[in-house]
Amino acid sequence: MTRKQRRLTLIGSGLGVLALAVGLALWALTLEGATSYFNSPTEAVEKLAKKQLEPGKLFRLGGIVKPGTYVRGEGFAARFEVTDGNNTIQVIYDGKEQLPDLLKDGQGVIAAGVLDQTGVFKANSVLAKHDERYMPREVADALKKAGYWKDDAGVKK
Fold this sequence. Notes:
Elements: H1 3-30, H2 41-49, E1 59-65, E2 71-72, E3 78-83, E4 88-93, E5 108-115, E6 121-128, H3 137-145
Parallel strand pairs: 4-6
Antiparallel strand pairs: 1-3, 1-5, 2-3, 3-4, 5-6
């Protein structure tokens, strides 16, 4: 095998591996739900009704902590409800890690966990927004779509 043939073989093999990697990445992104950062309560209820989301399946739930529902338990445990203005899902946090200090009524939240058979979301991690102006784009879009979004002046849009 000449030097030119070896170089062409090496370049061809490299391009083949690169094409395979790109193909696998694109395939992974097209899997249902793989590109969704979270589900709003309305999306979760709709997916449960369509059997696209099964109890016990891990996913992220995002929305606003419904005012008047946040209750701290023993240790790091807590209960609250997440709403997007249309639907509400009760969340129970197991208390294995400390909750963010900014988590309170009316704050944006994303919780990772599973829904049980009774429709209660059992969270194993909870993220709260860290600044009064910051909200993940997906949460903001879902709240705007539900008509629950407030601008900087506190006026519903």
